[in-house]
Amino acid sequence: MIEYSYPLYRPPAEADNIIIQATYGCSYNNCTFCSMYKTKSFEVRAIEDVFNDVETLAHSYPDARKVFLADGDALALDTEYLLKLLKHLKQSFVKLRRVSLYASAQNILNKSTQDLQLLRENGLNLIYYGVETGSDIVLKKITKGVNQSEIIESLNKASDAGLKISATVILGMGGTKYSDEHIIESSKIINATRINYLSTLQLGLEEDAKEKFYKHFKDFEMLGDIELLQEQKKFIQLLNPTNKIIFRSNHASNALHLAGNLPREKERLIQELDNALSVGEMAFIPSMFRGF
Fold first, then answer.
1. Span 34-89, pLDDT tens digits
2. Distance between CA 186 and CA 115 in Å, rounded?
3. Which of 60, 48, 50, 58 has the alpha carbon at shortest distance from 23?
4. Which of its termini does the chain have fewer beta carbons within 10 Å around, N or C?
């Protein structure tokens, strides 16, 4: 069996799928709220070593249909490298139906539209994309490295190339001071793009991230569960997507799990939030069962 470099992360939807580490760490790794790859330096693995892992896993799981390329943002890899890897995956997993990876605005904007289309044509189907917030003020405070217009541009560039997009927004990212702006500006991004999947999760800060986070975000005050669900309600109210979006708030950090299709089930989702808010904390998932 192969040896992974830990810590190893993958989206919840990839829990039962093949994971291939094409890179170690995150090519940007400067977001103040995130401690996922702080113990790792970004490294591109030798493609021969990655091929060996592919062949080992294909031998053990010959019927695998889905592969996730790790670590933090494998779309940072050169297009030529990714094309070779995608072709090898297709040869090795004869039933392969989907290849996915994490991607950032920077990754997408650094590639040409032709490159993205080539990747799609060779089997890259889905990208996981952290929007986090649409507020330019908050994006700067969390040192995300991009602004709202660049997020919109990159998401539309990816969807124009035929890539499916699973995006996340983090409730509470603006703290108490920028709560309204965070939600209003985040909804603008969703309404101006054509993502396929949308998830919300609640902000959680690991101990090793707090010092850097508060250094850049000096006026930050954490929201409580009630305030976070009020943000959730306002966010959904403001969403008017032009296409069908599968919405989930089933991340382990969430106080309330929601699921539905937007815009069709928008009113039902709002009603579920109203019901939970009227009951209060008794309706929430206990904090001891949550994590980030």
1. 989 989 999 999 999 999 999 999 999 999 999 999 999 999 999 999 999 999 99
2. 28
3. 50
4. N
Q: Would you state the structure tokens that stand for residue 232, as one six-digit string? A: 């959730």
Rounded CA-CA distance 143/147 in Å is 10
Q: Rounded to whole angstroms, how far apart are CA atoms 122 and 118? A: 6
How confident is the model over 212-241, as pLDDT tens digits? 999 999 999 999 999 999 999 999 999 999
CATH of span 12-289:
3.20.20.70
Cα distances from 286 to residues 206, 211, 225, 231, 283, in angstroms, run 19, 27, 11, 19, 9
Residue type, 79: T
24-33, 113-122, 166-175, 279-288: which range is least confident on average?
A: 279-288
Give the orientation angle of helix 148-160 with respect to helix 179-191, to 10 degrees. Answer: 30
Burial 6-23 (b: 16+ CB within 10 A, else e): eeeebbebbeebbbbbbb
Task: Enumerate the domain spans of the chain.
Answer: 12-289
CB 90 within 8 A of CB 121: no
Indicate the SS3 state at residue 7.
coil
